[in-house]
Amino acid sequence: MRTFSAAFPALKICRHPRFCLKPLNYYGKTIQSVERACDILETIARENEIGVTELSKRLGLHVATVHNLTRTLTTRNYLVNAGGRYRLGPAIPSLNSQWDPALSLSNILQPYAEDIAARTGESAVATIMAGSHVEMIIYIPSAQEIGVQFPQKIWSYPLNLATGRILAAFQPKTTWNEFVHRHMTDNNGNEAEKNLSKEDWLREFNKIVAEEMVAVRRTELDAASSFAAPVWGVGYQSVIAALGASCPNFRLTKEHFTCMRQAVKEAAGRASLLFQRNNGRETPVRATKYERKKTDHENKTNKC
Fold first, then answer.
1. What is the pLDDT of residues 199-255, one digit of tens each?
2. Who's near 297: CB < 8 A, 6+ residues apart?
3. CB-based burial of residue 259 (10 Å sphere; 0-12 exposed, 13-18 middle, 19+ buried)?
4. Which of 93, 210, 240, 255 would disulfide-bridge 233, Cβ 3.0–4.6 Å?
């Protein structure tokens, strides 16, 4: 195995055969009453506290319907009635504690990471925020003989990864200083970034949020460059994961740069749609059938 100084610390060159794209199955029609109950829970989660009348106006439902649903959810401890206004109840964190985001999201995002790898021929990853660290839940090795390898699953310094920068940038702004301080004081990261100031990093975070994309491009021939984009949760209110790709610089032509950036952004955009609703509440948040045409790269003709 050949190694080189990659875009981030501890990245290595690897050799691996091509991986194939697997489609994601989709579910059938949904139950209206369950849909409405979910709408109520999501609305209350956004508002923190809200009354039945306001809920009925927000959701376009009859007051009696909302009252019956909120009463049922309160009985099951998913809601708490606080003087006629509703808040999320103790059953919500109880369920949440049993949810494993790494396992759940890895199954959902696997086809989209594989799509990036298939379109670009490069290594593709998906990561999530685990406390103040970043956890790599998917790694698809490069289809090329020489590609970028990620030798660890947990990254203590999120800013060392393009996907980690996405996840950090979309955390509350009050946490930005903590990420930057830890990166600048404790991390033995890339030499080219050691001269960056706190203000430089904060400007970078603002740029990432504005563009919903990050490109970490190195100039050294023996380094690597990476691209990442966010996967949005319900209502595009929070980022739940990030998809990315990395390429050795000796292979990063202008055309390949453009192709990788487009592949990452499109895959992240399609993945985000899985968690959204169309026309308010008619379309549930669910996995959808995943289909795409075979790319030119897979026919050996794409410049990417």
1. 999 999 999 999 999 998 877 777 889 999 999 987 788 899 999 999 999 998 889
2. 118, 119, 120, 121, 304
3. buried
4. 240
User: Is residue 293's pLDDT more than 50?
Assistant: no
70 found inside a domain:
yes
Domain range enclosing 208: 12-18+100-299
**Residue 96 C-beta-side C-alpha neighbours within 13 Å:** 7
- CA-to-CA separations, 88 to 47, 59, 71, 173, 211, in angstroms, rounded: 10, 17, 13, 25, 33
pLDDT computed for residue 196 by the predictor: 84
Q: Exposed/middle/buried for 93, CB within 10 Å: 0-12, 13-18, 19+?
A: exposed
Strands (E), 167-287: 214-216, 224-232, 239-248
| 197 plus 288 within the same structural domain | yes
Residues 152 and 281 in one domain: yes
| Amino acid 87: pLDDT | 92
Q: E-assigned strands of 31-165?
A: 50-51, 79-82, 85-88, 123-130, 133-140, 147-149, 154-155
Q: Does residue 116 share a domain with residue 78?
A: no
CATH of the domain at 78: 1.10.10.10
Question: Contact at 8 Å (CB) between 246 and 141?
Answer: no
Between CA 224 and CA 194 the distance in angstroms is 17
CB half-sphere exposure, 277, CA atoms < 13 A? 16
